[in-house]
Design brief:
By secondary structure, the chain is mainly α. It has 8 helices and 2 strands; from the N terminus they run ααββαααααα. The chain has helices at 2-5, 9-24, 77-90, 105-114, 144-163, 172-183, 194-210, 222-227, and strands at 27-28, 31-32. It has a two-stranded antiparallel sheet. A hairpin with a 2-residue loop joins strand 1 (27-28) and strand 2 (31-32). Helix 3 packs across helix 6 (172-183), helix 5 packs across helix 6 and helix 6 (172-183) crosses helix 7 (194-210). The radius of gyration is 24 Å and the shape is globular.
Length: 259
């Protein structure tokens, strides 16, 4: 009985640490985050500590089901917010279906930039660098990671210069005006034209809408549903002889492992 009355110091230490983290507001979905230092002074709790299931953490869509693709790999939070606002103006939600934000297109772009595509791994990027003709495509030294870094910073600076507000705080019409300035090549950028950056942003936005959800965008295959595209079906053998068009429920690459 004497042994049962003794407290386990290790267990006591763990419980104390969990209580501290919970009462300080530093845990979100089971993860420790920074900030909120000022709330730590003089705050106590008698609540029973529980560990939340990170799989039930809110997603950007607010569904309550975690999406493992909704995680940043390259962008800073501010870069992501600018991109997320810009892609929605390029591919906005309307009566036909969701826009780029709901489709998680900014995450798609983030993941692409974090891959070999972002550093132009399969392209010749050594000098010398000479101004090229429009028909020759991009001839500069910046890789795509650098182009997006410079481009997003320039979007922010141009917004402040034009409207005295950050890009994400502008109205939709004001954001359109800023992006139009880039589209028309009217903004000075280092190492690349603003028109080239806009076209790159636009093309990756469209790719994120229609790419396989495996790559971070096209959430819930809703982009494919806009086009009635069936995605990656294992076979169409049973439909070869059919004369009537049949609408097929789309499938992604991630579903193929079940076959």
């Amino acid at each position: 009985m004497a042994d049962q009355d003794k407290k386990d110091p290790l267990l006591e230490k763990r419980t104390s640490r969990r209580s501290f983290l919970k009462s300080s507001g530093l845990t979100v979905g089971g993860l420790i985050v920074g900030g909120a230092v000022g709330t730590l002074i003089g705050r106590e709790t008698n609540e029973t500590t529980t560990t939340e299931d990170p799989k039930k953490a809110p997603t950007p869509q607010g569904t309550g089901n975690a999406n493992p693709n909704a995680a940043l790999m390259f962008f800073t939070p501010n870069q992501f917010d600018i991109t997320n606002a810009a892609v929605e103006r390029i591919f906005p939600a309307d009566d036909n279906g969701p826009g780029a934000q709901e489709l998680l297109v900014a995450y798609f772009i983030d993941h692409q930039l974090a891959s070999g595509w972002g550093i132009n791994a399969k392209e010749y990027m050594a000098g010398p660098f000479y101004p090229g003709e429009e028909t020759q495509g991009y001839q500069g030294s910046l890789n795509r990671q650098e182009i997006f870094t410079v481009g997003l910073e320039t979007i922010e600076n141009h917004s402040v210069e034009k409207y005295e507000k950050p890009f994400v705080e502008l109205s939709g019409e004001e954001q359109d005006a800023v992006l139009t300035d880039f589209q028309e090549g009217n903004v000075e950028m280092k190492g690349v034209s603003s028109n080239y950056f806009f076209n790159l942003l636009r093309s990756t936005t469209i790719e994120g809408v229609y790419a396989d959800p495996l790559y971070g965008g096209n959430a819930g295959m809703a982009g494919w549903e806009l086009k009635k595209y069936p995605g990656h079906q294992m076979s169409y053998f049973n439909m070869i002889e059919q004369e009537e068009f049949e609408e097929i429920e789309p499938k992604s690459l991630s579903s193929q492992h079940n076959h």
